[in-house]
Amino acid sequence: MSSREHALDLARAHFDSGHFARDLARRVAFRTESQEPAGGSRLRAYLDDELMPTVLALGFRGAVHDNPVAGAGPLLMATRHEDDALPTVLLYGHGDVIRGQDVSWSRGSGPWTLAAEGERLYGRGTADNKGQHSINLAALGQVLAARGRLGFNATWLFETGEETGSPGLAAFCAAQREALAADVLIASDGPRWQRDRPTVFLGSRGVANFDLVLRSRDGAHHSGNWGGLLRNPGTVLAHAIACLVDARGRIMVQALRPPSIPEPVRQALADLAIEPAPGDPAVDTDWGEPGLSPVERVIAWNTLEVLAYRTGNPDHPVNAIPPMARATMHMRFVVGTDTAGLREHVQRHLAAHGFGAVEVGEPVITQATRLDPGNPWVRFTLDSLERTSGMAPALLPNLGGSLPNDVFADLLGLPTVWVPHSYPACNQHAPDEHLLAPVAREALELMTGLFWDLGNHGAGLPRRGEQAGPATGYDRAAPVA
Predict the structure, then answer these.
(1) Are the C-beta atoms of 435 and 120 separated by less than 8 Å?
(2) Calpha distance 184→381 (Å, rounded)
(3) Most exposed among 218, 221, 424, 436, judged by the fewest C-beta atoms under 10 Å?
(4) 36: exposed, middle or buried (C-beta count within 10 Å: 0-12, 13-18, 19+)?
């Protein structure tokens, strides 16, 4: 007789037999670098030759689609429909990876060959995102092997451009809105809060990049002849930045600060602490918004950073006053921040402080999302993971980083539940990227248990039309103390 424990036994055996590692090795070998202009055929091959046969074997039916943005990577959409009365889960993953950085690898056998050393599985994409979607694909397989059916409907959506900002994803989802209709998004990306603690996050901070440029004149002028007579744009722009964010990292533009930290968010973060792993930098306790814990600063608040600053010729300085200065600014922000007027807010603030000559570039923005922690799908997921692991998962109302979650939460109107399978020190986006074998094994158990529970109890959870959209209205609470 099929049972939850039988499905978990199959999940453990799937990992311990080496079957999972063989699948992952085959996927890592596809050099799917979406930043490379010539990589289009490899992105297509990963979907056509690797993922499509996998989902077909799981009883899905679908196709690979061209991206609506010319030159961007293709997408795969496949559906397994069991019964109109059952809930539908949208699953997401991305098949592209960051550049391999081949010559910089010091462990394993380079980025395109899976290599096991101790508890680490080295290879590009092991953590981001091939290892994570491989776990979820394998978990569906264990439920089907144990029960013969999922007990819910499922749609897979794979893109191949996440590492370049997901071009075309929103347009594709808008065009395929009916085909992608679901009751919840369940996906995996990013790291756990800590390697030994299962984690759920419900959205992500948004990100906005914009340039500040000050052009004072044409051409540089000798400092011996003109020093003290000509305004130095490098000096002026440095002070302009200082009026936006102070010397301790506190945002000084009131309109760029979130209105509050909602009480449900405070409660969810109350039992979490920043615990740097060996090799991680020490946390600067006197940096950022005063009065917040380190966890609140990285998860529940906004930051404004200087990514790059240039004036004159940094590589070959000369004794001359430069004609211009440029800075690239980077803001991470949470739900409730008025980003629609970001450029105007910055321009107005600079002008009020005497820096009206500084040009503010048009920002490139990915919106923030955050599902209400009280949503029934959240409680269901937490209970299932705790039942499998024996410990209460960490709950993050949103990830500190950014994902294209706004496409699912805002455009498709879905509650979004993310269960990450990596960990903070995985070297994501760096040489020696790796997945931890013990974490991957546990994650396979967790997702098998979650999918099993969805088949048993998912019919009792809110369905389309029975729940609010991304549920951000709760995000109005008392101001920060």
Answers:
(1) yes
(2) 11
(3) 218
(4) middle
CA distance 340 to 333: 12
pLDDT in tens, 143-184: 999 999 999 999 999 999 999 999 999 999 999 999 999 999
* Omega of the bond leading into 405 within 30 degrees of 0 (cis): no
Tens digits of residue pLDDT in 16-25: 999 999 999 9
Structure tokens that stand for 354 in this block = 């005497």
First vs last C-alpha separation in the chain: 56
Residue 220 in domain? yes
**Cα dist. 310→212, 238, 247, 318, 332 in Å?**
11, 10, 19, 14, 22
Under DSSP, is residue 221 helix (H, G, I), strand (E, B) or coil?
A: strand
| Regions of the chain with pLDDT less than 50 | 1, 468-481
User: Would you call 436 helix, strand, or coil by DSSP?
Assistant: strand
How many Å separate Cα 23 from the centre of its chain? Answer: 24
Residue 237, H or E segment: helix 233-244
Res 46: pLDDT: 98
Q: Which domain holds residue 40?
A: 4-204+368-460
Task: Report the SS3 class of residue 150.
Answer: coil
Residues 160 and 212 in one domain: no
Q: Where are the beta strands (DSSP E) in 289-366?
A: 303-311, 320-321, 324-333, 359-360, 364-366
Overall residue count recorded for the chain in this entry: 481
CB 415 within 8 A of CB 174: no
Q: What is the CATH number of the domain that holds 387?
A: 3.40.630.10
State the total domains in the chain. Answer: 2
Alpha-carbon span 276 to 287, nearest angstrom: 16
The torsion region of residue 270 among left (phi > 0), alpha (psi -120 to 50) and beta comes to alpha
Picking from 159, 215, 156, the residue whose alpha carbon sits closest to that of residue 182 is: 156
DSSP string, 420-433: --B-TTS-TTSTT-
In a domain, 480, yes or no: no
Q: Are residues 81 and 103 in the same domain?
A: yes
Q: Which two structure tokens, joined as six digits, stand for 406?
A: 């706004």
Q: What is the pLDDT of residue 13?
A: 98
Domain membership of residue 481 (yes or no) is no
Q: Report pLDDT for 473.
A: 37
